[in-house]
Amino acid sequence: MGVMEKIKEIEAEMARTQKNKATNYHLGTLKAKLARLRNELFVEQSGSGGGSSTGEGFDVARNGDARVALIGFPSVGKSSLLNALTSTESEAAAYEFTTLTCIPGVLNYSGSKIQVLDLPGIIEGAAHGAGRGKEVIAVARNADAILIVLDSMKEGLNRHREILERELETVGIRLNQRPPDVAVSKRSGGAVRFSSTVPQTKLGPDPEKIVTQILREYKIVSADVLAREEITVDQLVDVIIGNRQYKPCLYLYNKIDAVTIEEVDQLARMPHSMVGSVAQRFNIGEPMEDDLLKQNLWKYLGLTRIYTKRKGSPPDLEEPVVLSDIRKGTTVKSLCANISTQLLRDFNYALVWGTSAKHSPQRCGLSHKLDDEDVVQIVSKTIKQQQLDKNYGVLAQEYQDKHSKKRLEAKKKKQQRLRG
Q1: What domains are there in the chain, each with its CATH number?
Q2: pLDDT 10s digits, 115-131
Q3: Residue 300: how many CB atoms within 10 A of its CB?
Q4: Predicted TM-score (pTM) of this structure
Q5: What is residue 352's DSSP assignment?
């Protein structure tokens, strides 16, 4: 029996089984087996080349401060949306599968550059290769956030939102979730030991028993498991497998000008959702205009603008350094690393003005978390402080070698010009 057949068999058994205290342990075991088989299938398909992001237009270099992937069924308005956001010419028409490759564009907003990817429409079964689904989903795994575009006219009957969520869930993409606060530490011997700092009501009457059984499904027989929050079987499996991607996701219900006001109100109340119309420019303005969609994208990406200043000079308010909670964080350390590794190496302290500071300026260390539009001045170590560093000799030699190499290259270029 193949992997797909085993998956279907387990899904059928889960559908037949009633959910109650007596079946909780059995259902937990089935969920663990199902997740393991789905992961095996995903790895197998990725290894065969079908799950990679290669192919025309799909190998898109990162550009800007963040990346957003547009996901949706064919003909929901993704290409028109990209054109509205970025002025990029992505072919749009009133028929399905207009976009056959990945079209990138850049949204300039609040001093940041956000890369927006218009991906081909996907259909049910995309996670298993239907259409170009695997290529689309591979790009989505590498995005900082996902914007799911839905057709308001079709959503009620076709349940496109639910289908897309299931397709992404199947390949390990978790939408609007954070990694569970669970630690699994393998040991060389002994049984599974489970402990929790909070009551576990979602793991049945005997949490340790079900945790032990789930670990055995993944050939782990000796381990310490510590849960610092209430978890489900699915969350524990995600921690064990370890290849899950946690993505912020905004749902945009497009074409609301074609449905009733009651339907618009219902869609707008859905979690993590907003309504709009690309055609009528409702909540979606021109590329250089502010609008609700751009504001929501900024919020979901967790972007933070930091203005830098030198000693004795006013802050540079024209070109902020844009940090992201999703990529490297928004601490002083992230700011230094974003500007220069040398700046991080020679860091002494930072002076911070803004809402993150208790008083202005506040002297802060590398771990200080910055707020949007803070002003930061980095103060480097003095020569004497640098000399006290145990690696000072190595670093000084590296700097001297680098400087000598630059001088030699400049001398060669000058000689070539003289010969020419």
Answers
A1: 3-48+180-243 (no CATH), 66-177+246-299 (3.40.50.300), 302-380 (3.10.20.30)
A2: 999 988 886 665 656 65
A3: 21
A4: 0.80
A5: E
